[in-house]
Design a protein that fits this description.
- About 25% of the residues lie in helices and about 30% in strands.
- It has about 250 residues and is an alpha+beta fold.
- The strands form three sheets. Strands 5, 6, 7, 8, 9, 10, 11 and 12 form an eight-stranded mixed β-sheet that branches. A three-stranded antiparallel β-sheet has the order 3-4-13, with helices on one face.
- Strand 5 (about 125-140) and strand 6 form a beta hairpin.
- The longest helix has 22 residues, at about 15-40.
Length: about 250
Amino acid sequence: MNDFNIFSNPRKSRYDPDLARRVNEEKEPAIIRKEKLEAPKVQNLQKSDLKGFIYVPSINLYLAKERTLKGKSWNETHKILQEDNKFMPSIYQFTEYLKYLQNDHRDKTEAKEILDDILKKTQSGWKGEWLDAKFEKRNKGLYLLSEHKIQNGKLIAKSEQPLEKCVTEDCYVDLKFNNQGLPISKSKSQSYNQGKNVYFWQPVDGRVAGFNVGSGRADLYCSNDDPDGRYVGLGVFPCAEGASQKI
C-alpha cells in the first residue's frame, strides 16, 4: 500500500514524518478489517447441526447423507452453500467419502443406502452431484481449480494445481485415484460393475466436474458440464467442517 505524504504546512511544503506515520497507522487497519468482512471463513458447525452428516476421518470433514439443492447451477450451489457455512466437496473429498462408505462406515445398512443412491443404476431418470473442480488450459497444460469461495461477488479458486498424472481417455476406470481424486488406471472390464468401476470423462478446458448415475452406469465426468447449467436431477452432497467431537 502506498504511503501518504503529509505536509504540516502546505505553503512551505515541509514533510512531517511523525504525522505521516500516524495517518498510515490509522488507515491500514481499517482497510484490512474491510477485506476480512468481505471474505468470511467457513465456520465449524456444532454437533447439533451435523445430524444428517457422516464424518470421514481421512479428510477430517463431514459429508451429507443426502443430495440437496437439486436444479441449481454449479455457480449457484457454491453461493448457497457458503451462505450456510458449508461447501461443495472436491473430487478427492467425494471419492474418499465413497471409499469410507464402502470399507469403514460402521452402519453397513446406511452405507449401502447411500452408495446405492450414488452408484446403483436407475430407471427413473439420471441423478448426480456437482463437485468442486473446474479445469483450465494454461501454457503448461490443464490445471485443476478448486476450493472456490465467493469474494467481492465473484467465485474465486483458492487452489490452482497442474493436473496430476491420470487416465487420459474416456473409458471405464478402476476406483483408484490420485491426490486430486482423478483415476489412475483403466478398468480391464469395459462394462459397468457397481462398486468396482465407473465411466470416466477426461477433463476439458472450461468445464466443471460432477458425478452421476443413470440407467446404464455411473459416471465421473470432467468434460460435459457448463458451470451455469441447471439440471433437475443434479444436486450436491454438502461438505462441512465440524467441531472436534465426532458424531
